[in-house]
Amino acid sequence: MGKIIDFLFPPICPICGAPCDAHGMMCAACWATFNWIGNPRCHICGYPFAADLDLGPHPMCPVCAAGKNEIHWMRSACVYDDVSRNIMLPFKHAGRIKYRHIMARAMIGLLGDMPATPDLVMPVPLAWGRLFHRGYNQATLLARPIARHLNIAIDVNSVRRKYRSDMGHKSARERAEHIHGVFCVVHPDAVRGKTILLVDDVFTSGATFSELRRVLMRAGARDVWGVTFCRVVHAI
Ligand SMILES: [Zn+2]
Ligand SMILES: [Zn+2]
After folding, report:
1. Is the peptide bond before 19 cis (omega within 30 degrees of 0)?
2. How many angstroms does the Cα of residue 15 sit away from the middle of ligand 1?
3. How far does residue 19's CA lie from ligand 1's centre (Å)?
4. What angle do CA 196, 201, 206 make, to 5 degrees?
5. Which CATH code is given to the segment(s) 71-231?
6. Any idea where the domains of the chain sit in the sequence?
7. What is the mean pLDDT of residues 4-32?
């Protein structure tokens, strides 16, 4: 069946339209333009280090080494730069959901590194007003194939997000203040005792993940991890 579909609809790269090996993949030329995050990276938060550094089997960034990072496992597939922004922004704001397969595939490639299989996959919620305006939550589109891959449930109902203005170009501290209190666990029974994998398109300062983790842990979650397609990388 797969062969017939490939014959009728040959797989093409969703970015440039060139033929590629399989549906849901990008071509090798496009793949080579991304700044993929590999080893060595912080084994807790996934912060990338220069490739020639030998940091042993469990590298740790200064933030995690100082115990200032609350999330115990966090990964991103690539660095947020001009290349990843060129698919991420249309995916998020212009309805280019065709990119979801290549983005989710890159994220699934990171999951073998998780400490265990989580109980739930949870896309970072969007405020209702934004969801209505946009028509979809881009994080949910990425979370569905991840939940399917892990063969676990996806939870899009247990947490609500209040509407707040955009974060814009705020500092890390301003972001943390801006996001405080924005999430509300409306079905604590669904998250109590559960290990939850949060999914989003981009990791910026970590303020959103920290705040969502805080409310989930307060509601009784066992642990909260995270995975995103790309990540803003500042020197630390
Ligand atoms: Zn391509
Ligand atoms: Zn770290």
Report:
1. no
2. 5
3. 8
4. 65
5. 3.40.50.2020
6. 71-231
7. 88
